[in-house]
Amino acid sequence: MVSGMSCRASEGFPLQFRRLYEYIVLACGFPYAVEPKTRVFVEFSIRRCSNFQPGLVNNTSKPDHDLHESQSSMAVETQLEYPSLGSSLRLDSKPQTPSIRQFPSNASIVLIGSRGAGKRTLGFIGATHLGRRLITEDHYFQETTGISRGEFLRKYGNNEFYRRNVEILKQMLEQHRSGCIIECGMGSLSNQAQRALREYSKTNPVIYVTRASHRIRSLLRLSEEEAARLEAADLSHRSCSNLEYYNLYDPSCDGTDTPPENGIGNVSSRLKNVKEDFSNFLDFLTGQGLIRNSLESPFSIAALPPECRSHTYALSLRLSSIPDLDLAELEAGADAVQLKIDIWSPHLQGIMAKQVANIRRKLGVPIIFHMEDYVFADSPMSVVDKEHAYFELLECGLRLGVEYIVVDLRFSSDRVAHLVRCSGPTKIIGHHLAQEENSWGWDDESWMIQYQRAKSLGCDMIRFVRATSKARDNDTAREFLAKINAIPGHLPVIAYNLGEHGRPSLISNQIFTPVTHPIMQATVSKAQVRQFLPTAAEAVQSLYQSRILDPLHFYHLGASVFYSLSPAMHTAAYRVCGMENDFQSLEVTSLGDIFRLCQDSNFGGAAITQPFKVEILSHVAAKSYHAKAIGAINTLLPLRMFPNNGPLDGSIQSLLRQANQRSRAGSIVAYYGDNTDFIGILTCLRRNISPRNVVQPSKTTAIVIGAGGMARAAVYALIQLGCRKIFMYNRTEAHAQDVASHFNSWAGGLTSDGKIVHVLRSIHEDWPAGYRLPTIIISCVPARSVANQAPANFEMPMQWLGSPTGGVVVELAYLPLDTPLLKQIRRVREETKPAWVIVDGLEVLPEQAIAQFELMTGRKAPKSRMRLEVMQNYHRYE
Ligand SMILES: O=C1C[C@@](O)(C(=O)O)C[C@@H](O)[C@@H]1O
């Protein structure tokens, strides 16, 4: 059975992978080699996935620190007001000229904003993430004039400085239209410069970077008056930008933050959260994330937008309730957050920017931006002015780069169509609400007319909501949904009834069902939470009760699995998400054992561990791009034969269809393999590599200890990171040679000598001449005896540890946690004080499990819960 499928699936793959390889190599993973010939591919856009039938990816293009503060100080700072407004509603800065926000994916990205906002740090993070050149205005000025700005000003005076500054800014923008991140300095404050930036924003993203004013003030040591002046001047940046990014305080850099203007070398070595936040923002902006994921790993939840997945939930969150909540506690089960703007303040733009950043940081899910119209209810403004104010605030949402914006279809068609035209990568959800109980039922033609109207206006999705007190309206709502879903090429539709009686329709609705959270029910005042909403876990439980989902069995399989923390992490995550699955570790001695266990029709997936990670690869019918490149899998998933599900031929489409059915039992016809070990390693490397040791392909060297499945994943993570000089040491040299030749034939083309992995024969030899000492060390050998093999007890030769800038050491073993290598690094750190950052096995383990849970279930993992589970259970083994 397996081999039959294997043959068909593998026939389908090579071409996909060849194209994919080119795409990845040239456009994404290996960013230093972007070639013009990749343009067409890279610009391919799947944002309008409107008529998605699972399996059909539509590629039509379009017609800081504050988080850490106590909740009380946040409440003061957000200055929320309810709309008791006597006068007209005015925001604290002028409305911007709406931007169309359609950019070529390689268009240079400009960062503007006040001094101290963090532009240079973000520029640096962005350039590293996207593999682009970082151009800073100061440096460019000096390169062009031969002297610094300060010197220029002293030598030539104000007027000449001003003239030259604008001239140089224009030249800098013009000469770098693509492939760069451009950081603008103070030059962007002059009128002429802002005119030039406004013009540039028609073709390129111009991001206005903001930060809490008290942070800027203390960072730059400004007086109150100076700070107020700087802030007022800074607001003018809104008018010449088309996007806005709030640089939230990152507690991971506490005590080490220095003004970024002092240069990259002084920037905190950590900034873990900022790196993640800004990289995600850029992925959304450039559209890289979705394309890459659907091609590379079709079972990853990032491979399909939530509206194309089955049963997704949107946590309903009011802006006014955020100060009373610890957002991190709301993690669990929701695929998106619906942020309802329910309050007014002249500073609303800033408040929204901060809270959007806050949600992204704490919950990491897409945001659906919804403006409540009652915000304007008490205002004496005319109807026309209210409409204007409403769309102005939606424009603010677009500027913040939220993933979805809800627009009320009561407003004029011109306005809605204009919003659609300006929406760039943001998707527009047309919203039709029937608030009156006595309004027409779901079978009335008016709903269909609204549907057609939203479609013709270019909305990406449509949402119908109806107040009801009649239980039978749930059946008609379901019928209405079925009617639309039967239209070929239909838009994704959300439809449910409001109120106590509407709950069944919330359960049967498929996309972005609004949900609440137990914490919100307990914390926030009754008026702030819609009591009739289920929690995401309750909604999922109902799917099990109504047999829409099936309880499945998951395993952790390997030769020595007694110690594993995987069952604790996965089981806790099932409970939090309302799933009825189970997960257990089982010791197996052969691949035969594995496939015997995994043929049960209720088998959901397995974490595969040593010694089977490499061996099992040739026994799966389909594998992710990563698993193939690594040559090992750690995640095994079933492929089932479902009726009406199209051919199971190994194509990306058929795998996406399978992914959308993964919580259903059914007879298994073959298996799919993926690898999340490299994700765990890559995530931890990205977090912990200091800017001083940032990967430079021509210079950085890394060493991987071991030559098993985990060592392969480590090499792959390093290649993804841009590392081109990877050394490998293993007790049995021949195994290391195998791994090296695998990667040299796969990716050797990325180096001039065709070699990306070099084998070190002995730890008694000096570090190879002509190569820098390693700044990345990854140990992938067991710290205890496995299958009668003695523990590796590996320590680095002291001469190999001589990197003057230190580096990062990743230890994958976690039993025992304090391995000989980590003990050695601690000793070295104490004695000679180079900046070695230690990442232990307990930091990597949950990261690979989080990705694995998402592959296995198709639901967003409760990350902090899984990380906590590791910490709480680890002591069992100490
Ligand atoms: O190697 C590992 C560690 C692991 O086996 C564990 O729980 O220990 C789980 C696997 O998914 C992973 O690839």
UniProtKB/TrEMBL annotation:
Chain ranges of the Shikimate dehydrogenase substrate binding N-terminal domain: 558-636
GO biological process, one term: chorismate biosynthetic process
InterPro entries (UniProt xref): Aldolase_TIM, Aminoacid_DH-like_N_sf, DHquinase_I, NAD(P)-bd_dom_sf, P-loop_NTPase, SDH_C, Shikimate/glucono_kinase, Shikimate_DH-bd_N
Entries under SUPFAM superfamilies matching the protein: Aldolase (SSF51569), Aminoacid dehydrogenase-like, N-terminal domain (SSF53223), NAD(P)-binding Rossmann-fold domains (SSF51735), P-loop containing nucleoside triphosphate hydrolases (SSF52540)
GO molecular function annotation: 3-dehydroquinate dehydratase activity; 3-phosphoshikimate 1-carboxyvinyltransferase activity; shikimate 3-dehydrogenase (NADP+) activity
Stretches assigned to the Quinate/shikimate 5-dehydrogenase/glutamyl-tRNA reductase domain: 698-744
Annotated SDH C-terminal domain residues: 841-867
CDD domains: DHQase_I (cd00502), NAD_bind_Shikimate_DH (cd01065)
Pfam family, one: Shikimate_DH
Xref: PANTHER family: AROM/DEHYDROQUINATE SYNTHASE, QUINATE REPRESSOR PROTEIN
Family to which this protein belongs: In the N-terminal section; belongs to the shikimate kinase family. In the 2nd section; belongs to the type-I 3-dehydroquinase family.
Name of the protein in question: Quinate repressor protein
Protein's organism: Cudoniella acicularis
